[in-house]
Here is the input.
Amino acid sequence: SFFNESMLRQKKRSLELIRMLRTAIDQDFQGFYLLYQPQIDGKGEQIKGVEALARFQDEEGVPVAVTEFLPILEEHGMIVPFGKWVARTAMQNGKKWLVRNPDFKVSINASALQLMQADFASDILRIAEEEGFPYKNLIVELTESCAVENLNIFMDNFLHLRQMGVHVAMDDFGTGYSSLQMLKDTPVDVVKIDRSFVAEIGSSEFHKTFISFVVSICHTVGIQVCLEGVETQEEFDLVKNMQLDYIQGYFFGRPMEKEKITEILQ
Here is the structure.
């Protein structure tokens, strides 16, 4: 390919981000912070838990998109310490919410690279022990688009977590190339239906049928279902009678500071 200025700018940006992220991690994760998106019961009446979402801002205080910094963390060997920081921070904040609601759940996302680490489950359990966070209140989310052939690598970690009472969720369900195969082969407690099925629910009978089908098949085998991406009253009206266990989306709240979650619980 021929050289052009945009290639140089992109490479400079990538190198600068690598430097910033390494510096941030070395300085006790300075610049990283967590926001929390509420997860509401299927009737839309009560907050049942939150999903912890990582954010990063550079030295100038400018936010960096997750889609930009997360691949760099994965590609350059920083995702494992970063994942431990996310888990510990989410549990430290979550302990305060359990005082208000002992059944409150805190979800953290796990990269495929993290789950391929032999000691991933042991690390999560150790952090929970150190922070005094009950296993039963923690949910570890796996992105459903992970390659099927890698599932055997994850299995020991999944089984270890579940045996100790930690819940496991499959994120982005419905977007991968073999969703039902993954559901059959992966021991999960919660399935999160991807937001793309909500976007057209008002005009697509297929999307409504798909959501109802997933709820039905999951409940038959004891799996809970969370629907992501509910943003309007109309969308909520269409799904509130579908027997969903959780609903997540901008209609109930954007990702917010930990203090706001505390206010909601109070």
